[in-house]
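Morning F.,

Quick status update on the modeling queue. The single chain you submitted on Monday has been processed. Sequence for confirmation:
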Amino acid sequence: MPKTDFITKLLIWRLRHLSNQSFIIILSGIIGIISGLAAVMLKSGVHAIQEFLTEDFYNEYANFLYILYPMIGIAAAYFVGKYIFKDVGGHGIPDVLFNISKKQSLIPRVKMYSRLFTSALTVGFGGSVGLEAPMVVTGSAIGSNTGLLMHLNAKKRTLLIGCGAAAAISAIFGAPIGAVIFAIEVILMEISTASFIPLLIASVMGSLTSMIIIGKDSIFKFNFSETFQAAHMPYYLLLGIICGLVSLYFSRAVRRTETAMEGLESQTLRMLYGGALLGFMVFFFPPIYGEGYSTLNQLIDGKSAEILNRSPFFSVIENPYMIIVFLVLIILVKPIASALTIGGGGSGGIFAPSLYVGGIVGFGFAYSKNLFGFHIPLPLASFTLVAMCGVMSGVQHSPLSAIFLIAEITGGYELFVPLMFVSAISFITTTYYQKDSLYSLQLKDKGKFIPESKDQELLELIDITHVIERDLLPVHPDAKLKDLIDLVKISKRNIFPVVDDKKALRGIITLDDIRDIMFDTTRQETIFIRDLMHSPPEILLATENMQKAMDKFESSGAWNLPVIENGVYLGFVSKSRIFNAYRKRLIRQKQD
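Structure tokens below.
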């Protein structure tokens, strides 16, 4: 039976036997399972590659292959993506957000599997990025294309994209609640009770799939037994501020490095420079190889001295103060290394690097304070985990996701109070200097805009050319007042555009402009339109988005504004026409 016939019969059967909500719930479960399988495949593949490449490395010697591996991985990922999948790597989550906002939640089918291969090559060979963003892209693409196959509208495809993203994060971290909140906070712009259930189902199925195949093997392997003490709160306050400032540095370092990489003339140069620079960074700082979660496990387990191993200059140094210097250097280098990986052509995201940097910040903060020995000692594991939450909150502007993700990773809610506190302080500190998240800034750097609210999203769906009113009668600038009076007699509008022979707008005239002289027969023969016309308060361009148009209405105080395309007058747009189109869009979305 052809696939199209099977799908048609399936859709007919579901219309007869299943409600929309029941059908979405079934699809969410299927998407959760498939996304969970994809996450397991990617994690297992990356770990196998890393173990194969580095298992014979000696701690006491310089391992020069660290210089070569990242360049090989980035080049392989780029060529596989370009010539096999026709899908070059780069950032994943910003592209998903853009597809939801501007492309009716349609994600190319190739992204359901391309990022599995390109990110495995990138991270497996030492690219200093994370697997979470590629998995979110993969899960989102699975959700989007499932919705497209089932003939669902854009709103329901968006929900399935959120289901795929939640399932992917849940499968990677084993944190279903945090994954759901991530999907709501980062991917989706709104949520209802009916939409919440499919997200829960997908997240649970993703986590269960991962547990069944690879067990309860978590990314972070430790037994957390420390208890929260109120006496630590002043230090958590200071940690929150530091996390906010580090988040700010992280975002700016990533963007400036990416801008520098884009300034290179060709992709070949980007691969060579990016791979070489990254290779030398990994050679001197082996903990930034790949995702780096093993380093955080060592720190949480109290094995801080081991992070100096495999570094050609630091491994022989046993001074505890050198550990602090080493950690500070890693904090400064990691964002740059992540940007070099992606800018060079690799595939990955900044989700894991933000967690990694946060963990280093928290451990370094507590370790330094304990080393100097004043006041009460600080628990290293607690501050490491809480700072991971703080930097993730600051970089991604997702405080709730960060709180629940780390709370679930710890296996309990002992740290819930400091997690909430540090996440809030970090978020406040970062947003004081930088309003947008790194994802939004990366899109803006590329000239892409995503709406920040539901109102903006609806406005973006309205094309300015679809609301142009063309019933305003034009008048030539060389015409006389009497010619305009003839138009007034047959026109139902009180604005008259002044248009020349080339269809260019020269100005406008309103009834108020001629009310005092329109019945003066002498002036009707002697006054020309060019002497009466004046410039409109603002001019709209046919290529402008509706948000920009509304800003012009707001600043000018006008109710009607002319629209120009390539210097040619098209017509007028009125606020009432926009409000009517907005209302229709709002009603249609509620019906969907």
